[in-house]
Amino acid sequence: MSDKITHLVFDCESIADGDLISAVRYPGESLNAAEAVERHQAELLEEKGVTFIPATFQIPIAVVIAKVTADYRLADIVSLDEPKFRSHVITTHFWKGWDLYHRPQWVTFNGRSFDLPLMELAAFRYGIPIPAWFKNDGYRSPRNRFSIDSHLDLQELLTNHSAVRFNGGLNLASKMLGKPGKMSITGDQVQQQWNDGDLIGISDYCRCDVLDTYFVFLRSMVVTGKLSLEDELAITEETRQWIEARAEQCQAYRTYLDHWKGWTDPWESESVESESEPNQSEPNQSEPNQSEPNQGEPNQGEPNQGEPSQSE
């Protein structure tokens, strides 16, 4: 068992920067932050049928990270700068933590398209240097889409780098494995939660997404041959117990366990079914054994003494 942290599984929640939207999209109209966000969302809904504001206009307000060891076991889960959730502090801890743990592999679901660009832009906004992340090392450059040493996007893995569309997203992948997936909250509700002051609720939602991502990561390691199915199932059970041990202090963990269904092993199910059915290769004890001659009838394997043998 290794204690070295080699993977950081993470997820971000963000809100729109209303002041930036006002300045960029509605200059000279004197809209306050809330008015700018509301107007932009209304325009997006009319144009595209969604209210999701692009990442370039957003800032991170919750980042949860699962620290995972080289043998794929969960070491810890942290919510950065909880309970204050200051965006600039979250961003600083995010990038400095990556350096502190000797630059382990980031693991995300669709992080190449949202989470990591969001955190890069936050570093730009707050003036945080991350030279190791922007290092130009050819194919092995951390930001190279096809190099997974620094970042493994599970959606990219499962779609062969977007060769197909992964309809259903993390929610679908999680539910395939009997994990909760999306529950009562979805990403498009985070802005309203922030407006309502429910910061812990946002962090809890993010924490559940990280657990889902971690379990999808484990199964992905089975598919790629890095982990056996038996080891994955054992680690999953260890993690369930880890969550259970902390559930009393964390609402997110209680909610997660309440919605946990578990994965059904088809091979194990077939084995149980076969054991519950009579073995067709064995004789029914309530009937004469057809493999032995009835004492009142001639043995079919020997000629009847009153009839000629077929070989004669």
From TrEMBL:
Top-rank taxon: Bacteria
Residue ranges with Low complexity bias: 277-295
Residue span, Predicted 3'-5' exonuclease PolB-like domain: 51-260
InterPro entries xrefs: 3'-5'_exonuclease_PolB-like, RNaseH-like_sf, RNaseH_sf
Annotated Polar residues bias: 296-312
Region (Disordered): 267-312
Alphabetized Gene3D superfamilies for the sequence: Ribonuclease H-like superfamily/Ribonuclease H
Pfam family, one: DNA_pol_B_exo2
Keyword annotations of the record: Exonuclease, Hydrolase, Nuclease
Biased composition (Acidic residues): 267-276
GO molecular function: exonuclease activity; nucleic acid binding
Protein name as it appears in the record: Putative 3'-5' exonuclease related to the exonuclease domain of PolB
Organism in which the protein naturally occurs: Stieleria bergensis
Taxonomy of the source species: Bacteria, Pseudomonadati, Planctomycetota, Planctomycetia, Pirellulales
